[in-house]
Amino acid sequence: MTRSSLIDSALSRSALRRAFTRARANGGAAGGDGITAAAMTRGLETALDALVREVRRGRYQPGPLRAVPIPKRDGSTRVLRIPCLRDRVLQGAVASVLVPVLDPLMHPGSFAYRPGRSVPLALRSLRRGQGWALDADIRSFFDEIGHHPLRRVLKQKVSCLETRQLIGIWLGSFGRRGLAQGSPISPLLANTALGPLDSALSKHGRLVRYADDFVVVCADKAGAREARRTAEQTLRFAGLRLHPDKTRIVPPGMSFTFLGTELVLHSRDRRPQKQLKNKMKLSLRRETISPGEHIERVLREGWKNMLNLTGRS
Predict the structure, then answer these.
(1) Average pLDDT, stretch 234-242?
(2) Which three-class secondary structure string do you get for the chain?
(3) How far is CA 241 from the centre of its chain?
(4) Rg (Cα) of the chain, in Å, rounded?
(5) Is residue 171 within 8 Å of residue 150, measured between CB atoms?
(6) Mean of the per-residue pLDDT values for the chain?
(7) What pLDDT was estimated at residue 144?
(8) Whether 157 contacts 100, CB under 8 Å
(9) Which of these, 313, 261, 260, 298, lies nearest to 115 by C-alpha position?
(10) pLDDT at 134 over 80
């Protein structure tokens, strides 16, 4: 898709209507302006005309975010920031035309918020690896991701200046850093921002990443340690860091939990494959939470927009 056709496609009436339909199907909650899907429906065509006109004339500005506290399992609270409905419609339309551009550029080890990807596929990918594991979590990723590093990555991958400018406006409305987790474009931006990390870690072993949780399967302990150093260095450039309590190097034979499932990687061995049939595969011992519950936790409630965008439910 060319530079001009990208923004034109996002601003087409069909793309905007589809984005509104998705937003309404997700509940059509109001943002900071208090306007719900029911209210917007009554004057939808007029509202979409005004939205396109504002963008075309360079006068578009997003409305205020609505903060919604979401209780977490540990008793603390996460704040979900929800953009105004008209902004979510525009964000959803832009996301829909960016997915075909950005998704093919993503690392095959990235499994969250992508068409045809899922928790079961991420776990299945790990079955092909044996050795030491770097089991890691990025601390407060969605709240702390730096905007400038993300803009640099987008400039390399999205040629349409108008689209990048729109994204820049939204990032500014999200605050000095972080992504609004009630925005339908945030999942795509999250994966795009972590592209450099995916590329760097894949040089050390098999990478499997789901949002801000990832595993790198390495040949030995030294390789796992080097993968951790690489992760720390790469994340530092994005204003991020590993979670010290949720990141560890796991030796063969020791269990760790990834995506709600307890896993065990076995040792590499040179003996004939027949003798190692059971030892060379990943053991899925037991699920501590269901995949559906894990998805609900990772998506932080407001991220169901992207699941609808990519065709999953």
Answers:
(1) 95
(2) CCHHHHHHHHCCHHHHHHHHHHHHHCCCCCCCCCCCHHHHHHCHHHHHHHHHHHHHCCCCCCCCCEEEEEECCCCCEEEEEECCHHHHHHHHHHHHHHHHHHHHHCCCCECCCCCCCCHHHHHHHHCCCCCEEEEEEECCHHHHCCHHHHHHHHHHHCCCHHHHHHHHHHHHHHCCCCCCCCCCCHHHHHHHHCHHHHHHHCCCCEEEEECCEEEEEECCHHHHHHHHHHHHHHHHHCCCCECCCCCEEECCCCEEEECCEEEECCCCCCCCHHHHCCCCCCEEEEECCCHHHHHHHHCCCCCHHHHHHCCCC
(3) 17
(4) 21
(5) yes
(6) 86
(7) 94
(8) no
(9) 313
(10) yes
Name the residue type at position 4: S
> What pLDDT is stored for residue 4 in this prediction?
59
3-state secondary structure 164-229: HHHHHHHHHHHCCCCCCCCCCCHHHHHHHHCHHHHHHHCCCCEEEEECCEEEEEECCHHHHHHHHH
Structure confidence by residue, pLDDT tens digits, 10-21: 999 999 999 999
